[in-house]
Design brief:
The chain is built from 8 helices and 5 strands. It has helices spanning 15-21, 28-45, 54-57, 78-90, 96-136, 138-141, 146-166, 230-239, and strands at 196-201, 205-210, 217-220, 225-229, 242-244. The longest helix has 41 residues, at 96-136.
Length: 245
């Protein structure tokens, strides 16, 4: 059953939350945490792989060395470095106040680590499931980081080698392709673009949202929450006009 716009939550007052989301006066570490949390929730909720958030998750190595994707959050801001230095300097300090401060700092760092790991696990699960689709579609492969692209190629090569040694080698050559589209039916598994998702608008959207294949269209205002097909609001989420919840 395809779900279109099923419900809209009017009484929810989230003006303060949305103000914080778009606030420019927040410390860099707080903004990083908000962006990471939003990326984590959206990646887990979206049926397809979303673009790799390079600004948040990647960093360049020192000059003169080759660039390499880093599967970790960008904690290289002054606040995080200061916290780590405090932890290193104050370990073993018998002062209860100091120990309590260390516990808070370490808890915050563990929260970052949990979000990063869970975010990466969600992406890897999609790569495992849709590896061939991601590798054969240029638009989709551009959403992968260099490390993810390498992983996807290795994963697909292992899958193909296993299938060929197990049973594909017994088939005629014309039936051994894993990306066969004979009869107008593709063997490549793709994400369900019509899956229902929960959407929250981060800003007013001028153009009405149209759900293809139906007579449904609606306006999206800041703070609105809808249940709607992913295909209808994909670009809004990718462009940052809305988030999944």
């Amino acid at each position: 059953v395809k779900v279109n716009v099923v419900a809209k939550k009017y009484p929810m007052d989230i003006d303060d939350i949305l103000a914080e989301v778009s606030g420019e006066s927040l410390p860099p570490a707080t903004r990083d945490l908000q962006e990471l949390t939003r990326a984590w929730v959206t990646e887990r909720s979206a049926p397809e792989l979303l673009p790799w958030p390079s600004g948040l998750m990647e960093r360049d190595t020192t000059a003169g060395k080759s660039e390499k994707s880093q599967l970790k959050v960008n904690l290289a801001n002054a606040t995080s470095r200061a916290q780590i230095e405090v932890v290193e300097e104050q370990v073993g300090n018998p002062d209860p106040k100091t120990n309590f401060r260390l516990i808070i700092i370490q808890t915050e760092l563990e929260r970052f680590k949990f979000l990063v790991r869970s975010f990466l696990r969600a992406r890897i699960a999609k790569i495992d499931k849709y590896a061939l689709y991601l590798l054969t579609d240029t638009t989709q492969s551009e959403r992968l980081s260099s490390s993810e692209l390498q992983y996807a190629n290795s994963h697909q090569a292992l899958i193909e080698a296993h299938y060929r040694s197990s049973f594909l080698s017994q088939f005629p050559a014309s039936l051994q392709r894993l990306d066969d589209t004979a009869g107008g039916i593709s063997m490549i598994e793709q994400p369900d673009a019509d899956k229902a998702v929960f959407l929250r608008a981060l800003r007013d959207v001028e153009e009405p949202i149209i759900v293809e294949g139906t007579d449904i269209d609606f306006e999206l205002k800041r703070g609105d929450v809808y249940v709607v097909r992913w295909s209808a609001i994909r670009n809004l989420v990718i462009n940052g006009d809305a988030e999944l919840v």
